[in-house]
C-alpha cells in the first residue's frame, strides 16, 4: 500500500516537472520568433520611409518682427522711403498683432514719413544749390580782389574781410547740408526698421502704472542710511 502511494506521488511529481519543462521550452521557442518579427517590421518601415536630415533636426523659431525689420532696412538702404512702403504693405496685408484693426491713420502717418523724407531731401538740395552758388560768387570776388588790389568785381557792397567771411560761411553751409543728407538717410533706415519691428509687438491700450513709496538703503562705513524714494511700476 505504501509502495502504491509512493508510486502515485512520484508519477504526479514527474508529470508536474514535465509540464513545467514543456512550458519553458515553448516560451524559449516563441520569444526569438517574436523578436525576429519585430526586427523585420522595423526594417521594412525604415525601407519604406527613409530618415532625412529634416526629420533629425528640430524646427527653429523664426521671429517675424526680426525678418520684417531686415527687409525694411534692406529696402530703405537701396531707395529711401521704400522701407516705409513695405511697412504700409504689412498694414494692408494684415500681418502682425494689429491684424484686423483699422489702420487708416497708421497708413497716413507712414505715408507722411515718405513725404517728409523727400521733402527734406528737396529742401536740402535747394539749400545746397544756393550755398554752392553764393560760395562761387564770393570765391570769384576774393580771387579778383587778390589779383587786382583796390578793385571790385561784383560784390561791391562788401569789404575784403566781408568777402572772406561770406566765402567761409557758404562753404560751411554746404558741409552742413552734406552732413544733413547723411542724417536724413540714417533716419530713414532707422524709422523703417523700428516701425517694422513694432508692427509685430502687442501694442494696445492696456497700460497701467502704480506709484508706491519706497526706501533706498545704502551701507556706509558709518552705518546704514535709508533714503525715501518713489517706486514706479508699469504694467502693459
Produce the secondary structure layout.
Layout: H1 2-48, H2 53-56, H3 64-78, H4 82-93, H5 104-147, H6 160-198, E1 208-220, E2 223-235
Antiparallel strand pairs: 1-2
H-E order: HHHHHHEE
Large-scale geometry: elongated
**Percent in helix:** 55-70%
The main pleated sheet reads as: 2 strands, antiparallel
Percentage of residues in strands: 5-15%
Structural class by SSE content: mainly alpha
Q: Return the average pLDDT rounded to an integer.
A: 75
If strands are numbered along the chain, what order do they take across the biggest sheet?
Answer: 1-2
Kindly report how far apart the N and C termini lie.
99 Å
Count of helix runs: 6
Q: Count of DSSP E strands?
A: 2
Count of distinct structural domains:
2
Low-confidence stretches: 23-47
Gyration radius, in Å: 44 Å
Characterise this structure.
- With 236 residues, this protein is mostly helical.
- The protein has two domains: 2-43; 64-204, no CATH class.
- 68% of the residues lie in helices and 11% in strands.
- The chain has six helices and two strands.
- The chain has helices spanning 2-48, 53-56, 64-78, 82-93, 104-147, 160-198, and strands at 208-220, 223-235.
- Strands 1-2 form a two-stranded antiparallel sheet.
- Helix 3 (64-78) packs antiparallel against helix 6 and helix 4 packs parallel to helix 6.
- The N and C termini lie far apart (99 Å).
- Mean pLDDT is 75; it is low at 23-47.
Amino acid at each position: 500500500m505504501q509502495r502504491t502511494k509512493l508510486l502515485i506521488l512520484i508519477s504526479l511529481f514527474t508529470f508536474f516537472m514535465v509540464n513545467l519543462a514543456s512550458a519553458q521550452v515553448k516560451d524559449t521557442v516563441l520569444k526569438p520568433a517574436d523578436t525576429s518579427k519585430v526586427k523585420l517590421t522595423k526594417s521594412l518601415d525604415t525601407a519604406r520611409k527613409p530618415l532625412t536630415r529634416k526629420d533629425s533636426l528640430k524646427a527653429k523659431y523664426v521671429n517675424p518682427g526680426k525678418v520684417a525689420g531686415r527687409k525694411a532696412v534692406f529696402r530703405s538702404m537701396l531707395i529711401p522711403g521704400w522701407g516705409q512702403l513695405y511697412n504700409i504693405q504689412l498694414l494692408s496685408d494684415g500681418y502682425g498683432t494689429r491684424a484686423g484693426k483699422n489702420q487708416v491713420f497708421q497708413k497716413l502717418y507712414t505715408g507722411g514719413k515718405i513725404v517728409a523724407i523727400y521733402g527734406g531731401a528737396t529742401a536740402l538740395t535747394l539749400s545746397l544749390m544756393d550755398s554752392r552758388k553764393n560760395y562761387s560768387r564770393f570765391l570769384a570776388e576774393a580771387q579778383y580782389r587778390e589779383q587786382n588790389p583796390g578793385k571790385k568785381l561784383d560784390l561791391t557792397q562788401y569789404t575784403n574781410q566781408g568777402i572772406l567771411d561770406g566765402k567761409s560761411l557758404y562753404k560751411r553751409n554746404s558741409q552742413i547740408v552734406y552732413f544733413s543728407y547723411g542724417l536724413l538717410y540714417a533716419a530713414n533706415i532707422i524709422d523703417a526698421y523700428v516701425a517694422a519691428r513694432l508692427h509685430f509687438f502687442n501694442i494696445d491700450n492696456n497700460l497701467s502704472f502704480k506709484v508706491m513709496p519706497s526706501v533706498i538703503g545704502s551701507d556706509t562705513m558709518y552705518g546704514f542710511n535709508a533714503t525715501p524714494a518713489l517706486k514706479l511700476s508699469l504694467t502693459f
